[in-house]
Specification:
Strand order of the largest sheet: 5-6-7-3-8-9
Distance between the termini: 38 Å
Largest sheet: 6 strands, mixed
Number of helices: 10
Helix content: 25-40%
Strand content: 25-35%
Radius of gyration: 23 Å
Order of helices and strands: EEEHEHEHHHEHEHEEHEEEHEH
Number of strands: 13
Structural class: alpha/beta
């Protein structure tokens, strides 16, 4: 039985369809990417998963069961807009939120201290939230989302506003939760994070699913249109090759866009005739490039 399934789920507000017949299956120990531009239906979908609003049609199942108060205790949520109480101490706030999820205070306190140690900030236990930097406030809110060890975790822009060191720290934590069996719904505008963390994706556009499935299989279904070429010396005449539409010179070499697959062999031959080839790679499309093709806009905008 899958931990989380959405079957033909639709949500309508007046004359506006916010989510139109979406289907999602999230396995145990999986990070599932839910993607789309603003207004695509991601937030509405996440709110329905969390039980904050009900679908107008379709079914959401948790381990094959309907939403109940007991299910609520198994859910964790990190919203894009942070919601900590600035003047409340970290310990009091986390204790309170954990108890709402059914934890005993002593268990919540033990878990909090463990997480503060893992994040190398044990001194924040008695501090008010407003005394912390934005990045460290985000760590505390992340702890609030996972303090009760949820089996289903919804992360909305979990790494936004963090410096690279803390991004890696939280990414490692998310991977650890996945490896422990948590099912994670992950929404972000950072495509490189999706490509690193996620096995399956669902791309929404104007409330509808435009692409869904295994990320590797999705990439393999799109043509490879970029070549990365590094050589010791300059290579002339690359733009003259039929099927090469654009040549961009970088410090380390060339990036070529091709419309005909057979152009790749000609590029390699011409480069070998004129120089020593250090790198020749036909690149698979990035997730952001796929998004632009199917939706017509850049998810990072």
């Amino acid at each position: 039985m899958l931990p989380l399934t959405l079957q033909d789920v639709t949500k309508v507000y007046g004359n506006t369809t916010a989510v139109d017949n979406i289907n999602i299956e999230v396995g145990r120990g999986e990070i599932y990417a839910l993607l789309g531009a603003n207004g695509a239906g991601k937030t509405t979908t996440m709110r329905m998963v969390l039980g904050l609003i009900n679908p107008d049609s379709g079914r959401i199942r948790y381990e094959g069961k309907n939403y109940t108060h007991d299910v609520l205790k198994t859910l964790g949520y990190l919203p894009e807009e942070r919601g900590l109480y600035p003047k409340v101490r970290v310990c009091d706030q986390i204790h309170y939120l954990a108890q709402l999820k059914g934890m005993k205070k002593k268990d919540a306190d033990r878990n909090l201290k463990e997480w503060l140690e893992k994040f190398a900030v044990p001194e924040y236990y008695n501090k008010r939230v407003e005394e912390l930097s934005k990045g460290n406030q985000q760590k505390i809110q992340f702890i609030a989302a996972i303090i009760h060890r949820p089996s289903i975790l919804v992360l909305d822009e979990a790494f936004s506003g963090l410096d690279p060191v803390n991004v890696e720290l939280l990414k490692d934590t998310v991977k650890h939760l996945r490896d422990e069996g948590a099912s994670i719904v992950f929404s972000t505008h950072r495509m490189e994070h999706v490509e690193e963390l996620c096995r399956n994706v669902c791309i929404l556009h104007k409330s509808r699913t435009v692409i869904t499935g295994n990320l590797k299989e999705i990439k393999n279904s799109f043509p490879k249109e970029r070549i990365m070429l590094n050589t010791l010396d300059d290579v002339n005449g690359l733009s003259d090759i039929e099927g090469i539409d654009k040549v961009t010179r970088h410090e380390s070499g060339y990036e070529l866009h091709m419309s005909k697959p057979e152009a790749a062999g000609q590029v390699l031959r011409r480069a070998m005739e004129q120089s020593t080839v250090q790198r020749f790679e036909i690149m698979e499309p990035t997730l952001n490039e796929i998004f632009i093709k199917v939706v017509g806009g850049d998810l990072n905008e």
